[in-house]
Design a protein that fits this description.
CATH class of the largest domain: Alpha Beta
Radius of gyration: 20 Å
Distance between the termini: 42 Å
Number of strands: 10
C-alpha cells in the first residue's frame, strides 16, 4: 500500500534544543542548549514526499544542532491547517498560499514568512480511460474536455480553491461537471473509476499511475494560473515573538531541501522511518523517489538572484488577485501585514 493512503499520521521529535527568541544562532551545538525550543508545525498533508526535507533534517539531527525541537504534525489539507494554526492548535504551519490568503480575508491574523513552492503545483489529473483518443493526444486540451466528467472534490484542501478559480477564469459551465465530495487524497476513487478527475499537486501523478491509473495531467500554471504554492505561516503575534526561532528553522530547512534535491532516494528512505508504507516494496520506493524528483523545480525562486523562501510583493499580489478575479475572496489582503521576508537572509 502506498503512503498517500495513510492518513492521520503524526511525528513528534525528541530533541534537546535551545528555546526562546534569544536562543543561539543556527551554528550552536545541542551541547550548549538548555530548555528545548519546542514548537508545533502543522504540515499541509499526510507524511508523503512533500515532507521529506523536514524528516531528513530531523533524522540527521540538523534541527537539534540549531537548538530546535519541532513537533511535525501530519495534515489533511491546507484549509484545515490554516484553521488549526488560526485557532492556536498549532504554532506554525505549511499551507498553500491561497488558503492562507482566504484565512486572512476572513479576519484570521495570519502572516506568511516564507514561500516554499514558488510555483503553483496544482493540476487536474484526469483518468485517460475517461478521455477520447483525440483528447488524450492533445498537448493542451480545451476546457470542454471536462464536460460530462465527474470531479472528485477534496474541499478541505487548497487545490479546491484553485479549481474554483479555474472555473471562473476559464468561464466553465460548472453545471456540466458533476462534483462528488471525497476524502483526501481521492486515489481510491480514481482507481475505481468513481471519479474521472481530481485537482491536486501534479507531483503525485506517479503514485496514481503506480496504482494502475494512466493519467492526463493539466497543470493549471499552463492555463494562466501563475501563483505561489506552499508557504510557511503563523499568527502574526507568534511570528513577531519568535523571529530568531523562525530564522533558524528556515536556515536548517533550506539546507535539508538542498540536500534532498541532490539525494532524493536517501530522503525518501529517511521518511520511511516515519511512514513505512512509502517503502512497502521496491515499486513503492521508486514511485516515491520519482515523485520527490518532480518537486525540485518548484522551489526555484521566481525572482532571479533571490534566495529560497524569499517573498516578492508583486508575485504575492498576483496570487491574491487571481482569487479576487475568481470571486474566491472579495478583496486583496493587507499587503503590509500578510507576509514578511525579514527572516530570510538575502531578501
Amino acid at each position: 500500500m502506498l503512503r498517500k493512503l495513510v492518513l492521520g499520521l503524526a511525528a513528534t521529535t525528541a530533541l534537546a534544543a535551545c528555546g526562546g527568541g534569544s536562543a543561539p544562532s543556527s551554528t550552536a551545538s545541542s551541547a550548549t542548549c538548555g530548555t528545548p525550543a519546542h514548537f508545533t508545525v502543522r504540515l499541509n498533508f499526510v507524511l508523503d514526499d512533500e515532507q521529506v526535507p523536514y524528516f531528513t533534517a530531523l533524522d540527521k539531527g540538523w534541527y537539534r544542532q540549531a537548538c530546535l525541537d519541532p513537533e511535525l504534525q501530519a495534515g489533511t489539507g491546507s484549509t484545515n491547517t490554516v484553521q488549526l494554526v488560526g485557532n492556536g492548535s498549532a504554532d506554525m504551519g505549511v499551507a498553500d498560499t491561497v488558503a492562507i490568503m482566504v484565512g486572512q480575508v476572513q479576519g484570521i491574523p495570519l502572516q506568511a514568512f516564507g514561500v516554499v513552492y514558488q510555483h503553483n503545483p496544482t493540476a487536474l489529473l484526469i483518468r485517460k480511460a475517461a478521455l477520447g483518443a483525440d483528447q488524450q493526444a492533445a498537448s493542451k486540451p480545451g476546457k470542454d474536455v471536462l464536460y460530462g466528467k465527474t470531479y472528485g472534490a477534496v474541499i478541505a484542501g487548497s487545490p479546491f480553491i484553485f479549481w474554483k478559480s479555474f472555473v471562473k477564469q476559464q468561464s466553465l459551465d460548472a453545471s456540466r461537471v458533476k462534483q462528488v465530495n471525497i476524502a483526501p487524497p481521492g486515489f481510491a476513487e480514481m482507481a475505481t473509476g468513481k471519479v474521472d478527475f481530481i485537482a491536486t499537486f501534479f507531483t503525485v501523478a506517479p503514485v496514481l499511475e503506480g496504482l494502475g491509473v494512466p493519467l492526463k495531467v493539466f497543470k493549471l500554471e499552463d492555463y494562466g494560473q501563475k501563483a505561489y504554492g506552499l508557504s510557511y505561516f503563523s499568527k502574526s503575534d507568534w511570528v513577531g515573538a519568535h523571529g530568531d526561532l523562525i530564522k533558524r528553522f528556515l536556515t536548517v530547512t533550506q539546507r535539508a531541501i538542498d540536500y534532498t534535491n541532490k539525494n532524493p532516494t536517501e530522503g525518501v528512505k529517511l521518511l520511511c522511518n516515519h511512514n513505512p508504507a512509502i517503502c512497502a516494496d521496491d515499486k513503492a520506493l521508486q514511485t516515491n523517489v520519482q515523485e520527490q524528483r518532480l518537486q525540485i523545480p518548484l522551489y526555484n525562486n521566481l525572482t532571479p538572484g533571490k534566495p529560497m523562501f524569499c517573498i516578492d510583493a508583486g508575485y504575492w499580489k498576483q496570487t491574491a488577485q487571481l482569487l479576487v478575479d475568481a470571486g474566491t475572496i472579495p478583496s486583496l489582503p493587507d499587503e503590509s501585514r500578510s507576509f514578511t521576508s525579514r527572516y530570510v537572509s538575502g531578501c
